[in-house]
Write a structure and sequence with these properties.
- The protein contains five helices and five strands.
- The protein is of the alpha/beta class.
- The protein has a single domain, classed as Rossmann fold (3-Layer(aba) Sandwich), CATH 3.40.50.2300.
- It has a five-stranded parallel sheet, with helices on both faces.
- Helix 2 packs parallel to helix 3.
- The longest helix has 13 residues.
Length: about 130
């Protein structure tokens, strides 16, 4: 459950239905939520507010999730990848090279998704 100061989560997904599901679920749980439909739009949103967590799709137009992750190199912003295009062999690589705290298929259940969000927000930032 979020603490007294709501954490700010950015949802970046090109699918408007998925974006709405994650946004509504996180808002109901008490988090402040922003949304973006491309990686480029997500970076623009982040110029104004640095999120406590990013929920990221990998395949988006204009700037893919992988390109977005490269743009975040050197930051401590945790990223939860939720995508239909998660290659099993890349999970470990992404987790080591980037600040990915979890990788899930879009068919993940809401309970499992929320447990991952809460765990990511409770963990200290990676150096």
């Amino acid at each position: 459950m979020p603490d007294a100061t709501p954490k700010w989560i950015l949802v970046a997904d090109d699918d408007p239905i998925i974006r709405e599901v994650w946004t509504a679920t996180l808002t109901r749980a008490g988090y402040r939520v922003g949304a973006a439909s491309t990686g480029r739009e997500a970076l623009a949103v982040m110029r104004d507010v640095v999120p406590d967590l990013v929920v990221l799709d990998l395949r988006m137009p204009e700037m893919s999730g992988d390109e977005f992750l490269r743009a975040l190199l050197g930051t401590s912003i945790p990223v939860l990848v939720v995508s239909s295009f998660v290659e099993d062999h890349a999970r470990e690589l992404r987790a080591r090279r980037f600040n990915v705290v979890g990788v899930f298929d879009k068919l993940v259940g809401l309970d499992e998704f929320m447990r991952a969000v809460e765990a990511a927000l409770a963990s200290p930032p990676r150096p």
